[in-house]
């Protein structure tokens, strides 16, 4: 087993467990054979890109996690937020921008009051 196989298996297993779904459920939802998911999570084989791609998209993973594991990455919450934003159309992004901006300001102001 290579270090990369272990890394890949750990990343995908953690992502699946976060969903609370079984390997079979993820396989059906992502369009990937559940044996492929089993093999990845058990550090076996060398998965094809055609299997990795739908899983990365299904889990809304930042691909840098897979290809640059040595880099420091955003927190999981920031990565998920980026993935959601990347899935938006221009119209959707324009519509939610004021809401997100307002929510961020509320959280930041709340933190300032807690410190004072």
Briefly summarize what is shown.
By secondary structure, the chain is mainly alpha-helical.
What tags apply to this protein structure?
116 residues; mainly alpha; 434 Repressor (Amino-terminal Domain); 2 domains; 7 helices; elongated
What does this structure look like?
The termini are far apart. The chain is an all-alpha fold and 116 residues long. The chain has helices at residues 3-19, 23-30, 34-41, 49-59, 64-67, 76-86, 90-115. The mean pLDDT is 87. The radius of gyration is 18 Å and the shape is elongated. It contains seven helices and no strands. The protein is 73% helix and 0% strand. It folds into two domains: 1-71, lambda repressor-like DNA-binding domains (434 Repressor (Amino-terminal Domain), Orthogonal Bundle); 74-116.
CATH topology of the largest domain: 434 Repressor (Amino-terminal Domain)
**CATH homologous superfamily placement of the largest domain:** lambda repressor-like DNA-binding domains
Q: Could you tell me the radius of gyration in angstroms?
A: 18 Å
Number of domains: 2
Query: Which CATH architecture of the largest domain is right?
Result: Orthogonal Bundle
Counting H and I runs of at least 4 residues, what is the number of helices? 7
Largest sheet, in brief, is: none
Order of helices and strands: HHHHHHH
Number of strands: 0
The amount of helix comes to over 70%
- Spatial separation of the terminal alpha carbons: 53 Å
Which residues form runs of ≥5 with pLDDT under 50? none
Share in β-strands: under 5%
